[in-house]
Amino acid sequence: QGQEKLSCNPKKENGTHVVLCELGNPMKEGARITVDMELSVSGLEDMGAAITFHLQLRSKNSPSPSNASVTVTVPVEAEAEMELRGNSLPATTVLPTSWHWVEGSRRLEDHGIKVEHVYELHNKGPGTVSGVTLSLAIPHLLGNHVLLYLLELGTEGGMNCSQHPTLNPAQV
């Protein structure tokens, strides 16, 4: 007939988390009630694809055959927004028209102007993420000519890196 807020108490029983809610006392025989519950659960990042709740209506009266339980499975969906930021140092590079690659040289300046590309992957939340794969395609060849000579590839922050193009093939 009306709406009431329930008084619920969380506690641990037999190693599981239990929330007990008092629905009413005394309750008349044949009474029908509907309960809408909203639960806020944190720390579900590693719980898998779903979380299961076991719901049971228990009576404090003498043994009741209606102490049936219901299992409800709710899918867990993590939400996180990723952002990729990148820049090049220097931002603009102009090669002199008279410059040529010096074949066989081990001096860095004979192979071009150093340009460093830095990429930062940020998690803007609200959830945490793991197992993220970032693929960067770097055009290091233009036809049969070297466009960018790749010296090194590094990461920070506990990330793993796998590289496909050969880095520093002339060992400059």
TrEMBL record:
Signal peptide: none annotated. Residues 83-171 form the Integrin alpha third immunoglobulin-like domain. One of its GO terms (molecular function) is integrin binding. The keyword Isomerase does not apply. Keywords: Glycoprotein, Integrin, Membrane. Its main location: membrane. It is found in: Membrane. Pfam families: Integrin_A_Ig_2, Integrin_A_Ig_3. GO terms for cellular component: external side of plasma membrane; integrin complex. It comes from the Eukaryota. Gene3D superfamilies: ntegrin, alpha v. Chain A, domain 3, ntegrin, alpha v. Chain A, domain 4. It is a single-pass type I membrane protein. Residues 3-76 form the Integrin alpha second immunoglobulin-like domain. GO terms for biological process: angiogenesis; cell adhesion mediated by integrin; cell-cell adhesion; cell-matrix adhesion; integrin-mediated signaling pathway. This is ITA2B protein. It comes from Eulacestoma nigropectus (wattled ploughbill). The gene is Itga2b_1.
